[in-house]
Amino acid sequence: MGLFDFVKGIGKKNTAQPVEQPATPQTTTEPSAQEVANKLLGLVQGLNLGIKGLSISYNSTTDQATIRGEAQSQADREKAVLAVGNVDHVAQVDDQLTVAAPEPESKFYTVKSGDNLSKIAKEFYGDANKYNKIFEANKPLLKDPDEIFPGQVLRIPA
């Protein structure tokens, strides 16, 4: 898919358990690049998207995460990219995922202040009542259709 930009510092705090604990204790308040990568990996694994060979690296100089592996569907690929990008430390995601069964890509939309899923559905589908299509397309990233925030990036399926 390529390189995706996100708003750094606006995403949710990554509270996922890291896949591995770091070997040395951290002496600063900022997490190391490896700690961030491990937490991002734990976050995506926690979504149970079934991505084979999943690996995530993080560059703290550029705030860029790179995600690799093979997703079973385009939707799973996009959810993994959004899960990583909608975290506060990440400004860009380099998507190096492949898809077992390629499908058309969804559009991505960055939530603005005052947006809600109905308003976004009206803009993309011409019908505010189709908000649930957007909500379902973003599960398990969204737990409630009313809990979106400015700067968050959402999948908008065709």
TrEMBL record:
<dbReference type="GO" id="GO:0005737">
    <property type="term" value="C:cytoplasm"/>
</dbReference>
<feature type="region of interest" description="Disordered">
    <location>
        <begin position="14"/>
        <end position="33"/>
    </location>
</feature>
<dbReference type="Pfam" id="PF04972">
    <property type="entry name" value="BON"/>
</dbReference>
<feature type="domain" description="BON">
    <location>
        <begin position="29"/>
        <end position="101"/>
    </location>
</feature>
<protein>
    <recommendedName>
        <fullName>Potassium binding protein Kbp</fullName>
    </recommendedName>
</protein>
<dbReference type="InterPro" id="IPR018392">
    <property type="entry name" value="LysM"/>
</dbReference>
<feature type="compositionally biased region" description="Low complexity">
    <location>
        <begin position="15"/>
        <end position="33"/>
    </location>
</feature>
<dbReference type="InterPro" id="IPR036779">
    <property type="entry name" value="LysM_dom_sf"/>
</dbReference>
<dbReference type="Pfam" id="PF01476">
    <property type="entry name" value="LysM"/>
</dbReference>
<feature type="domain" description="LysM">
    <location>
        <begin position="107"/>
        <end position="156"/>
    </location>
</feature>
<dbReference type="InterPro" id="IPR007055">
    <property type="entry name" value="BON_dom"/>
</dbReference>
<dbReference type="InterPro" id="IPR052196">
    <property type="entry name" value="Bact_Kbp"/>
</dbReference>
<keyword id="KW-0963">Cytoplasm</keyword>
